[in-house]
C-alpha cells in the first residue's frame, strides 16, 4: 500500500471514472418495505449526478420482485447458492461485487435501512469529501435527541470503565452511509470484508486507509443525521433467521414505529411515482 498520501490522484483519465458523479450502492436482503423506502427517498431528494446499484443477496421474495420493476437502478442478483455467509460477510462481499462495476469518481455505501430526508443531501455530502480526502462518513448514528445522547455519554459508568481499561471499541467510519473515492479503493485493492481480520463491513478499509496516512473525514453523527435516518439492526430484527438481543429488538421496533409514523416517511411511502 502506498504510504504517501500526497500521491493521491483522483482525476487520472486512465481510470475512466466519470468525475463529479456518485454511484450509490445498497445491499438488499428480504426487507421489502425498508428497501422500497430507501430507494424512494433517494429518488425524491437526490439531484446531484448519480447512479444507483442494488445488490440482492439471494432474497427470493417480494423485495426482489420490486427491485426487478425499477429501470433506473442497476440490479445485481446473487442466488442463494452463491451465498456462503450472512450478516457482515454477505454485505461486504456484495459491495465488493458492486464496486467492480462502478464507473464514477465516488462510491457511496448506503444501508437499506437508511432513509434520506434532506433535499440536495448528496451535494452537501460530496462537499465533505474534497479533493485531498479519500473517505467521509461517521460511526454510529443515534436517532435520540442530542441531549439524551450526551447525558448517556457522560453518565455511562460502564463506558468510562471500558475507556479506562482501553477495551472500548475504536472508532471507524461505518458502511451505514460512507463516501469513498473509487480510484483509491481500486488502487489499494481494498475490500469491504476481510475474512482473516474478522472486522465488520468497512472496518478493514478504514484501518488500512488510516494506516496509509490517507485523509479521512470523520463526520459528526449530528451532521449526518441532518441527511439521513438510520434504523440500526432493522434487517436483522425483521428477519427471524437472525438473532438479536431482546433489548436491541425492542429499541429497533420502537424506532421503526416512530419513523414510519412520521409525515415525511408516510409521504414517501404513498408516492408510487418515485418508482418510475
List the helices and strands and how they pair.
Elements: E1 18-28, H1 32-45, E2 50-57, H2 62-67, E3 74-78, H3 87-99, E4 104-110, E5 114-116, H4 121-127, E6 135-137, H5 146-155, H6 157-165, E7 177-181, H7 182-187, H8 203-211, E8 216-218, H9 221-224, E9 228-230, H10 234-238, H11 246-260, H12 263-270
Parallel strand pairs: 1-2, 1-4, 2-3, 6-8
Antiparallel strand pairs: 4-7, 5-9, 6-7
Would you mind describing this structure in some detail?
The chain has 276 residues and is α/β, with parallel strands linked by helices. It has a single domain (18-275), classed as Spore Coat Polysaccharide Biosynthesis Protein SpsA, Chain A (Alpha-Beta Complex). The chain has helices spanning 32-45, 62-67, 87-99, 121-127, 146-155, 157-165, 182-187, 203-211, 221-224, 234-238, 246-260, 263-270; strands at residues 18-28, 50-57, 74-78, 104-110, 114-116, 135-137, 177-181, 216-218, 228-230. A seven-stranded mixed β-sheet has the order 3-2-1-4-7-6-8. A two-stranded antiparallel ribbon has the order 5-9. Helix 1 (32-45) links the parallel strand 1 (18-28) and strand 2. It is globular and about 45 Å long.
Tags for this entry?
alpha/beta; Spore Coat Polysaccharide Biosynthesis Protein SpsA, Chain A; 7-stranded mixed sheet; two-stranded antiparallel ribbon; globular
Amino acid at each position: 500500500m502506498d504510504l504517501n498520501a500526497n500521491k493521491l490522484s483522483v482525476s487520472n483519465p486512465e481510470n475512466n471514472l466519470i468525475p463529479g458523479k456518485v454511484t450509490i450502492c445498497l445491499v438488499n436482503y428480504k426487507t421489502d418495505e425498508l428497501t422500497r423506502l430507501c430507494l424512494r427517498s433517494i429518488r425524491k431528494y437526490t439531484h446531484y449526478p448519480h447512479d444507483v446499484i442494488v445488490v440482492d443477496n439471494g432474497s427470493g421474495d417480494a423485495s426482489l420482485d420490486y427491485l426487478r420493476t425499477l429501470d433506473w437502478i442497476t440490479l445485481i442478483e446473487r442466488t442463494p447458492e452463491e451465498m456462503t455467509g450472512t450478516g457482515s460477510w454477505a454485505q461486504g462481499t456484495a459491495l465488493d461485487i458492486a464496486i467492480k462495476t462502478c464507473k464514477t469518481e465516488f462510491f457511496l455505501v448506503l444501508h437499506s435501512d437508511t432513509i434520506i430526508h434532506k433535499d440536495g443531501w448528496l451535494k452537501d455530502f460530496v462537499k465533505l469529501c474534497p479533493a485531498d480526502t479519500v473517505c467521509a462518513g461517521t460511526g454510529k448514528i443515534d436517532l435520540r435527541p442530542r441531549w439524551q445522547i450526551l447525558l448517556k455519554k457522560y453518565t455511562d459508568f460502564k463506558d468510562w470503565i471500558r475507556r479506562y481499561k482501553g477495551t472500548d471499541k475504536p472508532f471507524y467510519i461505518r458502511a451505514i452511509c460512507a463516501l469513498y473515492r473509487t480510484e483509491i479503493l481500486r488502487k489499494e485493492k481494498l475490500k469491504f470484508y476481510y475474512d482473516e481480520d474478522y472486522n465488520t463491513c468497512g472496518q478493514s478499509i478504514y484501518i488500512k486507509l488510516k494506516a496509509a496516512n490517507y485523509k479521512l473525514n470523520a463526520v459528526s453523527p449530528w451532521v449526518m443525521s441532518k441527511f439521513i435516518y438510520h434504523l440500526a439492526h432493522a434487517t436483522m430484527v425483521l428477519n427471524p433467521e437472525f438473532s438479536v438481543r431482546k433489548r436491541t429488538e425492542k429499541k429497533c421496533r420502537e424506532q421503526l414505529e416512530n419513523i414510519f409514523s412520521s409525515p415525511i416517511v408516510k409521504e414517501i411511502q404513498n408516492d408510487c411515482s418515485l418508482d418510475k
